[in-house]
Design brief:
The structure holds two protein chains of two kinds. The N terminus and C terminus of chain A are likely disordered. In chain A, strands 4-3-7-2-8-1-9-10 form an eight-stranded mixed beta sheet. A two-stranded antiparallel sheet of chain A has the order 5-6. Chain A starts with a helix and ends with a helix. Chain A is an alpha/beta fold. Chain B has eight helices and one strand; from the N terminus they run H-H-H-E-H-H-H-H-H. Classes of the chains: A alpha/beta, B mainly alpha. At the A-B interface, helix 2, helix 3, helix 11, strand 10 and helix 14 of A face helix 1, helix 2, strand 1, helix 4 and helix 5 of B. Strand 10 of chain A pairs parallel with strand 1 of chain B, so a sheet runs across the interface.
């Protein structure tokens, strides 16, 4: 009976269905994104949330987070794999498309430039006799349109140029003589990475952090056997980091995004693509910046696309503002600025008064200490002399003065 | 004949009755040294107490300045957020959710690590809570609950459907010979997710 039951096709289907449900449960993710300008403190904030200092590289110099980084819970019980990462590279087709776009954009820019120059010279020439002012206006409008086209193409070209230069180490002039095939053929280390997923595993947080840094920031490094250094970030889709942090349990994934309004526009645009996936968004801004800007969260003013994408989740349950670097304040200057409020607060007044007294006492005690040190030194010198005097040998002569006096 | 004996006796008596001047001087010197050491310890203690009190007061002042600034910045952000939210059409349909307020979390990661890793707390941040990081962590977990609830509902519905199918099958096919009960499914199928849910909800 039992054998019959367990060979029933229905149970096999049930088993499959149960596996599906289990997979659905284990694949569940809640994405919480951290967005903000470069250097705002997103990565430092995430490191403190997950409880591992310096695990994800953060830097105030280069834009440290150059690729999206997803931080999730590490189910692996092996202590030697306490920290894991998967670096997911873009496919070769993807990079080829991008390079083709770049070279096409160069061609288009050249054409638009020529058209602009030609229209500009037409505009400067005097019009035929009897020509109406309307035709002059039309020529002017055409010129303005051409100028706008040129700006758009320039912007697009520059964006692509940033990425291409970072990888292949060539400037704009050098790239003019290159092609997609040529670049990929002469950079085998780059080609080797495309389509790959590199795994980084370590039992030590510091070692892990050093090992993933070349994939996460924009600093050139050696990524292949030829020894050539290049920045890998334009070739990377995302980096997935797995750590054992309780805050990440039950499917929570923190997403560290490259800086919005970054100097490298292409990196900023990568961040945009993640917003639709996020259930919760935290905008990170240093408190000093939030204080000084005319609109407190100025980042949203600068980035209108962000505003539009945020509309669906632009409410208190799925959006928050993190004011970072809260300790960045000069108390003396701030108290002077807030003199009015400080005077009204009795506690603060007492504090300031007591602190002044303590500082004065401190100076007095310091002087006493200095005098005491001098005194101690002189006592030590005297002691040394006395000790030296006792050690001098007595050569049979009677040295006790009092005794000598009595004998006289 | 000379009379050495009386002088000799006098000399011996003198030596036995009084200390040599150098020994007295050394003793005096030692005494002064010990007094100086004691005074030195007292001075250092006063200095320590002074600096400890000064650190506490500076911490209070820093804390006050930070709080005042946080309140000011928070007001600006709330006003800005309210203005932006008013432009959204959806805001009128869900007034509870779109009430014009937003959570702000002033944090200091550097102060957090100093509190957590050093034996002495930094000025102005006597405990981790003052750094703002624990509050942020708590809110992030709380903000993830709606999605987690939806997911849990989906999984439970799927499992419930599966249970119903198995129950129906067992009644039809086995005609009561193997009856799937809720207890059986709870114990044999759901025990792990239920245990996980209970663990998390109690934590």
């Amino acid at each position: 009976m039992v054998c019959t039951i367990f060979s029933d096709p229905f149970l096999s289907l049930t088993d499959d269905r149960l596996d599906e449900i289990k997979k659905q449960d284990s694949d569940f993710r809640v994405f919480i994104g951290f967005a903000g300008a470069t250097g705002a403190g997103k990565t430092s904030g995430i490191n403190s949330i997950i409880g591992f200092r310096g695990l994800l590289p953060s830097s105030s110099q280069a834009a440290a987070t150059a690729v999206p980084c997803l931080i999730a819970y590490n189910d692996d019980p092996n202590p030697d794999a306490a920290f894991r990462a998967q670096v997911i590279f873009r496919t070769e087709d993807d990079i080829r498309d991008e390079l083709d776009q770049y070279f096409n954009a160069l061609k288009i820019r050249e054409e638009v430039n020529m058209a602009f120059r030609s229209e500009e010279s037409d505009h400067n020439l005097p019009g035929p006799p009897g020509a109406s002012s309307t035709s002059a206006r039309d020529r002017q409008a055409k010129l303005v349109d051409r100028l706008k086209d040129l700006e758009i193409v320039e912007e697009h070209t520059n964006e692509l140029l940033e990425m291409v230069s970072a990888v292949f180490g060539l400037d704009e002039e050098e790239l003019k003589t290159e092609s997609t095939e040529g670049l990929l053929a002469t950079h085998p280390d780059v080609r080797m990475l495309l389509g790959q997923t590199i795994t980084v595993v370590s039992g030590d947080g510091e070692e892990f952090s050093e090992n993933i840094k070349p994939y996460m920031d924009s600093v050139p490094a050696v990524h292949g056997t030829s020894g050539v250094e290049f920045a890998a970030w334009p070739l990377i889709n995302e980096v997935r980091v797995f750590v054992r942090s309780n805050v990440l349990k039950n499917g929570i994934v923190l997403v560290d995004l490259p800086g919005l309004a970054d100097s490298v526009a292409s990196r900023a645009s990568v961040a945009q693509n993640y917003f639709s996936k996020l259930s919760v968004t935290a905008i990170v801004t240093p408190v000093v910046r939030a204080l000084n800007e005319q609109t407190a969260v100025n980042l949203m003013t600068e980035n209108r696309q962000l505003c539009l994408q945020m509309d669906g989740k632009f409410h208190k349950k799925s959006f928050c503002v993190i004011l970072s670097k809260m300790d960045d304040i000069n108390t003396t200057d701030y108290l002077k600025q807030q003199k009015g409020d400080a005077i009204k607060n009795e506690g603060i007044q007492q504090c300031q008064g007591s602190l002044k007294t303590l500082d004065q006492d401190f100076k007095v005690i310091e002087r006493e200490k200095s005098q005491h040190i001098q005194l101690s030194k002189s006592i030590d010198r005297e002691r040394s002399k006395l000790q030296a005097g006792d050690r001098t040998p007595n050569k049979g002569k009677f040295r006790d003065a009092q005794a000598e006096t009595l004998l006289l | 004949m000379p009379k050495p004996r009386p002088y000799f006796c006098k000399y011996v008596l003198t030596i036995v009755g009084t200390k040599a001047p150098k020994a007295v001087e050394a003793e005096e010197c030692n005494k002064r040294r010990l007094e100086a050491q004691a005074k030195g310890i007292a001075i250092n203690r006063r200095l320590q107490a002074n600096r400890k009190q000064a650190k506490y007061l500076k911490g209070r002042l820093l804390h006050w300045c930070i709080q005042v600034r946080n309140v000011f910045v928070d007001k600006k952000i709330q006003a800005d957020f309210e203005r932006r939210q008013k432009r959204l059409a959806i805001a009128t349909r869900q007034p509870d959710l779109y009430d014009g307020t937003v959570k702000t979390f002033p944090i200091s990661s550097s102060a957090y690590w100093e509190v957590v890793q050093n034996s002495e707390a930094p000025v102005g941040f006597p405990a981790a809570e003052y750094t703002g990081v624990p509050a942020l962590k708590h809110w992030l977990r709380y903000a993830a609950i709606p999605d987690r609830e939806k997911h849990l509902d989906t999984v439970l519905n799927a499992l419930h459907g599966l249970y119903n199918a198995m129950h129906a099958w067992s009644s039809l096919e086995l005609q009561g010979e193997l009856s799937l009960t809720k207890q059986f499914v709870n114990d044999e199928v759901l025990h792990r997710p239920l245990h996980n849910f209970e663990t998390v909800s109690h934590s």
